[in-house]
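Much of our argument rests on the idea that a fold can be written as discrete symbols. This step matters because it turns folding into a mapping between discrete strings. The record that follows shows the chain in one-letter code together with its fold in token form.
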Amino acid sequence: MTVPDGRRARLRIVIAIVVVLIGATVAIAAAVLFLPGLRSALGLPGGARVSYANPVLDQDFPDPGVLRTTDGWYYAYATQSFVDGVDVNIQVARSRDLASWEHLGDALPEKPRWANTTQDFWAPHVSQRDGRFVMYYSARPDPVGTTDTDPGLCLAVATANAPEGPFTDVGQAFGCGPGFENIDPMAFRDPRDGRWLLYWGSGFGPIKVQELAADGLSFAAGSSPTTLVEANCFYDYSCLVEGAWVTYKEPYYYLYYSGDSCCEPVNYAVLVARSESPTGPFMTLEQSTDEPDSVILEKDADWIGPGHNSLVTDASGHEWIVYHAVDVDHFFLDTDDPAERFVRRPMLIEPVEYVDGWPRIGDGTPSGAPSPASPQP
């Protein structure tokens, strides 16, 4: 068939336009995929993937502890903060994919009766067990009398019927003491024998572990704490150790922890140790290898103070570290109230890979640039 010259010219124009549009689409897609901090890695049910950019929750959300519930939702819990002009005791957020988060408000809207006049509610960890949700956290008790100038902080526990709460404190604290040694609880179920253990510690004291009672609301009768990692200024980021999180990958239990100072001054990083027993002894990365230190995640030019992490496994079986860090360009909370001018710590995530029996997190700093490697769903 012969095409008239006029139609042939119009056809060439149409083809040229289509080629330009396709090229532009490819260029835009490539640009999006390589925006600083953006990676395509998250596995969803059915093999789908979703891109993410750090921070995944761009507001103050310190000490994030993430739970993936049996219905596939992710819930993140965080230390108290000032949200939209309101004091939130325990923050909670929800996500379907780890990348996009919805802040749900306060998971502990009513303060416990023993800490009703204070406003220190720190570092929650929630586990799903026996048809309910159990939250371990730390709180400062109300002063008793006029001589109790430093009641310190206590380990506490609350329960709820839904992951977003409301959680209700059981009515009494356990594990109180001066200063802030009794903070940062993390409950762990040993997959080998089913025992529940509680890890905690800070305040220049050690990170410890102790077996929990069957109901999880107190320590097991006759149990006692075991010291796992002690503060030691000889090692980098180790004058203060805290924020314990334990995970198991046969044959090792990995103890992630953080040190030194989360906030003013900011000098914080994530370290790791491992053991063949959940109660130790744990050997740090530095003690077990030729590595110069045990640090696996520390600051870069854009983000400082990465730490107080949790770990979660996605729908495709890949492990992610969830942590807070401080944006050097947005250091403090947005508030005119000097009493609420705290260091702002958004939530970030990174994929975790295991190399020669030890976890590795990208280049060892928060993701601020594209990475050529990412977990596949």
